[in-house]
Amino acid sequence: MSGAKRILVVVDMQNDFITGPLGTPEARAIVPRVKEKIRGFEGPVLFTKDTHGADYLQTQEGRLLPVPHCVRGTAGWELEPGIEALREQTAIEKGSFGSLGLADVLREYQRRWGLERVEVVGLCTDICVISNVMILKAALPEVPVVVDASCCAGVTPESHRRALEAMRACQVLVEEPAR
Fold first, then answer.
1. Which is nearest to 20 in space by CA: 8, 28, 10, 9?
2. Against a cut of 0.90, is the pTM above it?
3. Which end of the chain is more exposed for a tag (fewer CB within 10 A), N or C?
């Protein structure tokens, strides 16, 4: 990972969030844009994978969202096949919305080589994207964190927009296509 000053983080572009039980038309619509972003990105690309066990329904998340998803080893846990084909590094598994492990990797990168920018794309804007972005803002307060809104989708279009506004309020740079 050495050398580049920019990193792209691809959050939870997994089958269960795209075509599975938590999939949405908006999630399916961003897949081609995320692939294009990964292909054109000059720098390391890190991936996260929402990861649960067979006991998911006994966890707090499972009790509050009783839809089993992203159970390790299932087809729904895997990254979308076209995105998986672009992955060059081990994905960071996370058992909760946000990943402290991702923050640790980026803090180490910052310590060793410096970072000018962290870009974030993925699913779901209003849950895992915003959670990881807030962790990264806290872990790397002087590194600009950028969210490409065209490569994100929320549980609903309205919750996607609310999450983007919340991130803007926390000094995250939200890039949106011109209207």
1. 28
2. yes
3. C
